[in-house]
């Protein structure tokens, strides 16, 4: 599909208008043939939420660490 897309784009002259519906259909068909479904979850959203969740986990772990810090053994002198 990508080769078809590139050949189509290369064949356009400067004044030609691309057939956007044809081009979208090329990639939509490929998308479905590869077994993907349109679930409205985008990669950039996943990255944003994942980084936000990781930050909150780190904050939670830091707070827990402050409360549950293991005690150091006392030094004994002989």
Automatic annotation (TrEMBL):
Any keyword Kinase? yes
Alphabetical list of Gene3D superfamilies matching this protein: Transferase(Phosphotransferase) domain 1 (1.10.510.10)
Instruction: Return one GO MF term.
Output: kinase activity
Keywords, A to Z?
Kinase, Transferase
What protein am I looking at? Casein kinase I isoform delta
